[in-house]
């Protein structure tokens, strides 16, 4: 696969992407690289840090001046970030702290894998939630706000139900069912918040807002899996669950007391304000509404071209390697003797923080060098990292070596996944935006569910080291399929945004042939 990747690099001339010719013209110019780095640090790091007090003052003033999400940028950023934190908090607790608790109290890797598979299954239903929240609305209270509040309430109730189960290990099927229902509400909240973001964000705010949202979700995972996980041993698992309930309730206060648009009612006893400011927003939304037949036609059109069609299979096959994650829990808690607290701190704080940094770095570099190219490189390195867990089997007892390695692996996971998500966004047709992007994400989640279901089967046949090698091999599936994906195809053929056909970015349709005597052809559109 690495040989294939190198051939793709040569065929598509990646050298011009990563090292533009204008930066290679003379050795004299290369001497200025230190000045370029300093200038980058000055504009991207030093100056923003110096402007933090001024930025905070402006944000505070903007918050006071705005009364709803559509009128205030800072309210949009803060609200979406806090709502994404609500998704990360229980997921971090379930996937890190609760899983470690079960293994430490006698549950096997295949039982934890079955739990993971069923808990992740609701996230494959997101393609159902999208059309549902588009059709069923209570516009007097906001298009998305009622769904967010409903989903958040369901998350609180189902999490609180766990407090009434006497013994989690003895009642694991019941616990799994409750967590399944909890994640039904969590996935509904995710789709509702994403739809809210699409409605209220301005085009120039999307990148920044997504950065804040994903970072907030990772911070929620750190809080739920790492910080709260450290409290399991001294205070007990049910105390940790009880702590999450008021946190989720406080988060729910954000959509409860915040309007999407001016004039929206907060509660039934409020009168709806008839404002001219609101009229433009509502009318613009209603004018874009299409009937059911038009929406179906747009969805079919969105997947009718080659790259989006192939990318569905990239997502469906892209996370089969997740079957190794429950095995890693058993390796380090059962075989290497890590305590629950140590595992929760390492995997729930250090590794998740590394994933967050990988997402921030990967997203920034993807905008500069190309999301597809960095996704291919990222998944190649991730394949080596997954196989590396097996290669380092002699060092499993060396805690510091494994901590460094797992942190590195977490960084690569974040780097690779964020660029794959960015490719999904590039391949999303605006007229079928919610449904198509949700379909991509649903396939990714379904892929993880299938991977978790593989765990029991794999450990019944192979030892742990061999499973890690197989996990590394399955990670390379994404690299191979991405060779045939052109991230510009939707923008070029459906949106009409790209007229320059200089760089296709697709091995199957690379335009480099005209250097051999062919003539340049125009885009299909």
Description:
This protein is mainly alpha-helical. It is 72% helix and 0% strand. Helix 6 runs antiparallel to helix 10 (172-200), helix 6 (73-104) runs parallel beside helix 11 and helix 7 runs antiparallel to helix 21. The longest helix is centred in the first third of the chain and has 32 residues, at 73-104. It starts with a helix and ends in a 30-residue tail after the last helix.
What are the defining features of this structure?
disordered C terminus, mainly alpha, 23 helices, 525 residues, 0% strand
List the helices and strands and how they pair.
Blueprint lengths: L1 H10 L2 H5 L8 H4 L2 H18 L1 H14 L7 H32 L4 H12 L5 H10 L9 H17 L10 H29 L5 H22 L4 H4 L1 H20 L19 H13 L3 H12 L2 H12 L6 H12 L4 H30 L1 H21 L7 H28 L6 H29 L2 H19 L6 H7 L30
Helix pairs in contact: 6-10, 6-11, 6-13, 6-17, 6-18, 7-10, 7-17, 7-21, 8-10, 8-21, 9-10, 9-13, 11-18, 16-21, 16-22, 17-21, 18-19, 18-20, 19-20, 19-22
């Amino acid at each position: 696969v690495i040989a294939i990747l190198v051939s793709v690099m040569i065929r598509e001339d990646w050298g011009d992407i990563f090292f533009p010719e204008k930066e290679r013209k003379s050795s004299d110019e290369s001497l200025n690289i230190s000045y370029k780095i300093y200038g980058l640090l000055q504009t991207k790091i030093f100056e923003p840090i110096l402007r933090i007090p001024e930025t905070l003052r402006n944000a505070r003033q903007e918050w006071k001046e705005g009364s709803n999400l559509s009128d205030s940028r800072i309210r949009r950023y803060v609200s979406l970030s806090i709502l994404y934190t609500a998704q990360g908090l229980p997921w971090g607790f379930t996937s890190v702290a609760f899983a470690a608790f079960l293994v430490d109290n006698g549950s096997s890797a295949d039982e934890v894998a079955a739990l993971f598979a069923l808990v992740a299954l609701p996230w494959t239903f997101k393609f159902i939630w999208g059309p549902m929240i588009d059709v069923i609305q209570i516009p007097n209270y906001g298009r998305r706000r009622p769904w967010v509040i409903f989903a958040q309430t369901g998350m609180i109730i189902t999490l609180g139900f766990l407090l009434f189960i006497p013994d989690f290990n003895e009642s694991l099927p019941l616990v799994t069912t409750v967590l399944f229902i909890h994640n039904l509400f969590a996935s509904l909240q995710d789709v509702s918040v994403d739809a809210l973001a699409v409605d209220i964000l301005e085009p120039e705010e999307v990148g920044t807002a997504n950065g804040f949202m994903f970072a907030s979700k990772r911070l929620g995972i750190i809080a739920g899996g790492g910080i709260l996980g450290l409290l399991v041993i001294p205070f007990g698992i049910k105390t940790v669950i009880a702590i999450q309930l008021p946190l989720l309730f406080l988060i729910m206060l954000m959509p409860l007391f915040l309007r999407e648009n001016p004039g929206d009612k907060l509660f039934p006893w409020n009168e709806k304000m008839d404002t001219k400011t609101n009229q433009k927003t509502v009318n613009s939304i209603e004018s874009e509404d299409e009937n059911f037949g038009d929406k179906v036609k747009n969805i079919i059109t969105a997947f009718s071209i080659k790259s989006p069609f192939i990318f569905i299979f990239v997502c469906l096959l892209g996370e089969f390697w997740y079957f190794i994650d429950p095995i890693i829990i058993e390796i380090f808690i059962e075989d290497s003797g890590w305590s629950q607290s140590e595992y929760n701190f390492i995997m729930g704080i250090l590794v998740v923080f590394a994933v967050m940094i990988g997402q921030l770095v990967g997203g920034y570099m993807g905008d500069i060098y190309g999301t597809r190219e960095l996704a291919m490189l990222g998944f190649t390195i991730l394949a080596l990292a997954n196989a590396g867990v097996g290669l380092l089997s002699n060092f499993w007892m060396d805690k510091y070596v494994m901590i460094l390695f797992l942190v590195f692996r977490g960084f690569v996971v974040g780097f690779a996944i964020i660029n794959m998500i960015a490719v999904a966004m590039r391949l999303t047709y605006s007229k079928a935006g919610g449904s198509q992007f949700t379909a991509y994400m649903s396939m990714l989640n379904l892929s993880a569910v299938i991977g978790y279901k593989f765990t029991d089967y794999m450990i019944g046949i192979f030892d742990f080291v061999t499973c890690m090698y197989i996990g590394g091999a399955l990670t390379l599936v994404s690299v191979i399929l991405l060779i045939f994906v052109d991230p510009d195809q939707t923008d070029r053929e459906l949106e009409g945004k790209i007229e320059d056909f200089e760089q296709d970015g697709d091995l199957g349709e690379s335009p480099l042939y005209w250097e051999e005597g062919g003539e340049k052809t125009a885009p299909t559109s």
